[in-house]
Design goal:
The protein is built from four helices and no strands. The chain is an all-alpha fold. The radius of gyration is 12 Å and the shape is globular. The relative contact order is 0.14. The mean pLDDT is 86.
């Protein structure tokens, strides 16, 4: 739930400040906090080459953090 709320907030930011698709990963990574920020620092070199799209970034983020959210709900 936390992840989806973060994603919804990011989408709102993208619309309001008119973030181009090619800039969304950079803006999104700026807003990562706590565990997500640590995760990003460990995977960014692998993911950024050659060009990381927002869709791929979301896919990787969900793959990592949906499992944690499901575990924490129990």
């Amino acid at each position: 739930m936390v992840l989806e709320e973060w994603l919804t907030g990011m989408e709102k930011i993208f619309v309001v400040i008119e973030v181009l698709e090619e800039k969304r990963v950079n803006v999104g990574m700026f807003y990562l906090t706590a565990e997500a920020d640590i995760w990003w620092s460990t995977v960014k070199d692998r993911l950024i080459v050659p060009k990381l799209t927002w869709s791929k970034f979301l896919e990787e983020l969900r793959a990592k953090f949906y499992r944690i959210e499901l575990i924490n709900q129990d």
